[in-house]
Design goal:
Largest sheet: 3 strands, antiparallel
Number of strands: 5
Strand content: 5-15%
Helix content: 40-55%
Shape: globular
Structural class: mainly alpha
Order of helices and strands: EHHHHEEEEHHH
Radius of gyration: 18 Å
Distance between the termini: 33 Å
Length: 173
């Protein structure tokens, strides 16, 4: 809002790190990355909602949140310039196969390698937060894997057991 700075602004912080995309392109062994990726995701998926700014919309419930996300597929199908039956199919499939609820948390909304950097200590730094919202943290993980099919590697799949074990340990999910 700019209240603290006197004008609307984007706050940047310098981090001595390299792009994760560059790092993975220049190395063939990615086995050291799934655990730091899990730690990066857990670092914001575990923030209690009451510690987040009031400006972030809070869904009434997990069910209301999921219904709205499914309806977003329906609205996109309806509003799209051309008929794309796959959008209606996705909405119908999601409605019929609703995942079990999890606690709603801060999600990045664009969690992918292009928005990650690797610092000199091997930690992953997350950038580009303009799509952040309160939602289902599994969306970030699924989005990461989906984008990795185009701009790999899928660091979750490099060691899915190690990734999931560390993510579960940190989040309790």
């Amino acid at each position: 809002t700019g209240e603290r700075l006197g004008t609307k602004a984007i706050v940047l912080d310098h981090v001595n790190a390299e792009s994760l995309l560059v790092h993975t392109a220049n190395t063939t062994d990615h086995s050291h990355l799934p655990v730091p990726l899990a730690e990066a995701a857990a670092s914001f998926h575990t923030i209690p909602l009451d510690e987040l700014p009031a400006s972030l919309a809070r869904p009434d419930s997990y069910d209301a949140y999921l219904t709205d996300r499914i309806d977003e597929w329906r609205r996109t199908a309806h509003d799209h310039i051309e008929s794309l039956p796959v959008l209606r199919y996705v909405a119908a499939w999601l409605h019929a196969h609703r995942p079990p609820p999890v606690p709603l948390r801060l999600i990045h909304g664009d969690f992918q390698s292009a928005n990650l950097m690797l610092d000199e200590h091997g930690r992953i730094v997350v950038l580009d937060w303009e799509l952040a919202q309160i939602g289902d943290p599994r969306e970030d993980l699924g989005y990461f894997s989906a984008v990795a099919q185009i701009a790999g590697p899928d660091l979750i799949q490099v060691d899915s057991e190690g990734f999931c074990r560390r993510y579960r340990e940190l989040t309790g999910f």
